[in-house]
Amino acid sequence: MNDFNIKSQTHILVVDDYLDNLTLLTMILNNLGYQVRQANSGKTALKAIEQMLPDLILLDIQMPGVDGYSCCQQLKTNPKTQDIPIIFLSASNNAADKLKGFEVGGEDYITKPFLLEEVVARVEKQLILKWQKNQLKQELKYRKKIEKKLLESQQILTQILNTCPDGIAVLKFIPSRPHKPAYFYCTFINSVMENLLKPNQKRLINPKILKNSLDIFDSSLFDYFSEVVKTGHPFEQDLYYENSEIKAWYSVKAIPHGQGILIIVRDITDRKQCELILHQTNDFLYQQATTDNLTQISNRRAFDVYLKQEWKRAKREELSIALIMIDIDYFKLYNDHYGHEAGDRCLYTVAQTIRQAVKRPSDFVARYGGEEFAVILPNTERIGAETVANSIQKAIHDLQLPHAQSPISSYITLSIGISIQIPTSEDFIILIQTADHALYEAKHQGRDRIQSWSELLE
């Protein structure tokens, strides 16, 4: 309050019917830098206050007409003037007079004749108190405004969280202590999460969420959540959840939040169902793309993919790989005699018989083209390949499919060529060429026989 600019903006009203007192007080306060107005009666003072509100009033008690007590009472009952501090001036040192002054609303009481230092001290004290009260009011007003905005924000946030399709919860982490395990406790949960947790709410939504509390979802979930708190790294995983009312897939995300975690749970059942349908569709399309429609075994495209894959594996592991090429003897004569429908049935029967004769899951049977078939045998040497070839040929012989036009037999027969290689390059064409050459030799030597490429080299 010692700042000159502040004092020059401070207005003090001095009310006294005694001119000497008015003059003296005005001079003192003017010298201190205050703006001072004068009034010689209570009635005049009230009019002056109506024209401009002062920051402080020095008010004499004993005045004709409206005395100081009455004037003070009127001012304190008026909302516009009730906060103006009033210092009574009186020649009476009577305790009852002082008490009455405080009862009607006065803030202070100075006895005449007054000491100048006392007047200055009491004036400045009341002005400081008023300034502090004004500051407090402004702060309270500001706080109320902020609190209102905060309340509105909280209401909006609560509405958003409760209408959000995701389940949301806030868990605070309490580290382990001697003889007491670590735990979480829930500080917030929205309505979606509440509905999700039924009928497990009583078990889960309580001050302490222990490790076994989360076993209803996943036995490792507590450890995952604890790790988020320790490392600050988010956690996300798809979980299947089931209770008496719900069977669904959920995406569970946990992110660091203060001394705990914020959990967001989203229903992804529809997405999972779409993924399943897409996966099934892709499987179906893949099967369609890699299956020969007529024989229902793998087609040439699938053969090329699988042979390339197994050739690379054999080269990497320095293993042998065998290829069996199979051709139905005199199939054109069969078609010409029995018709194409019978020919298609024959191809299907032969293909399925070959597939059944090949036992290992890693072995691969495909229709190579026309009446020609191929069998890929990973990690197989000559004896193993010849054993498989013999099993195939025997199975076809056992079928005894009639072939009246065959020059070599009354039944369907096969010519078979075998090649076994240990890959030394990326190109697997050598395996196909040598197997095909062995097949050609089997046909050239009279058909209905098995020919190995390695035998041709001996």
From TrEMBL:
Residues 11-127 form the Response regulatory domain. The modification 4-aspartylphosphate is found at D60. Keywords: Phosphoprotein. One of its GO terms (biological process) is phosphorelay signal transduction system. This is Diguanylate cyclase domain protein. It holds the Pfam family Response_reg. It comes from the Bacteria. The keyword Phosphoprotein applies. It comes from Lyngbya aestuarii BL J. GO terms for cellular component: plasma membrane. Residues 319-455 form the GGDEF domain. Gene3D superfamilies: 3.30.70.270, 3.40.50.2300, PAS domain (3.30.450.20). GO terms for molecular function: diguanylate cyclase activity. InterPro entries: CheY-like_superfamily, Diguanylate_Cyclase, GGDEF_dom, Nucleotide_cyclase, PAS-like_dom_sf, Rev_trsase/Diguanyl_cyclase, Sig_transdc_resp-reg_receiver.
